[in-house]
Amino acid sequence: MDLNMNEIGKKEVQVWDGSQSRLRRFWQEGPLVLVFLRHYG
Amino acid sequence: MRREKEAFDQVGARVVLVGLGSVGETATFKERFEVPFAMIADPQKHLFRAFRLKQASVGSLFSAQMIAKGVSAMAKGHSIGKPKGDVRQLPGVFIIDTAGRIRFSHYAASPADHPRPEILLDVLRCEETEGGS
User: Fold this and answer.
1) CA triplet B115, A40, B15: central angle to 5 degrees?
2) Which of A17, B4, B8, B102 is most exposed by smallest CB count within 10 Å?
3) Is A20 on the interface with B (CB under 8 A)?
């Protein structure tokens, strides 16, 4: 599946501690394992 | 994956979980279950949609496999709380290198479909050997 990672990386995300960050920050220093969870509870 | 955190650290990978709860719900979940990884709150599913993760059919939620998983979880002491998020949302896992390229993707075929951590670590070790991006 061809995803536009350049655009996806620019997305601002809400981190659990209340801060915000662009998603690409998470893979800048090393590979990122991004795990999408179904739900909590 | 919690048990493999050290292994992920050793290959220099960062694990980040994306959930459907609010920031507050995400923080509570992280604290309650002592999640050792960073978490992103995506209640509006912006990231889920960006990565094109799909939803399960209603029927698959009540499949024999899902029921068995639920019973197994309860037998281990996990309680069934009120789920926060979209119970039909299917999960997924992606490995992204430092150039922003996807090196591995897993789109769950069912709610209980998750790649084993060993598979992810194998991909990461290959990346490390090849010099990554």
Assistant:
1) 45
2) A17
3) no
As a whole-number percent, the residues of chain B with pLDDT over 70 amount to 79
Through-space distance between the first and last CA atoms of chain B, rounded to whole angstroms: 24
Q: What is the pLDDT of residue B79?
A: 55
CA distance B120 to B96: 11
All domains of chain B, ordered by start, with CATH? Answer: 5-55+83-130 (3.40.30.10)
Closest CB to B127 among A9, A31, A34: A31
Question: What's the residue count for chain B?
Answer: 133
Q: Is B28 helix (H, G, I), strand (E, B) or coil?
A: helix
Is A40 touching B (CB cutoff 8 A)? Answer: yes
| pLDDT of B6 higher than 60 | yes
Q: Which of B39, B48, B89 sits opposite A16 (nearest CB)?
A: B39
Contact B105 A1 (CB under 8 A): yes
Closest CA to B12 of A30, A5, A8, A26: A30
The answer to whether residues A3 and B97 touch, using CB atoms and an 8 Å cutoff, is no
Give the pair of three-digit tokens for residue B102: 């996807």
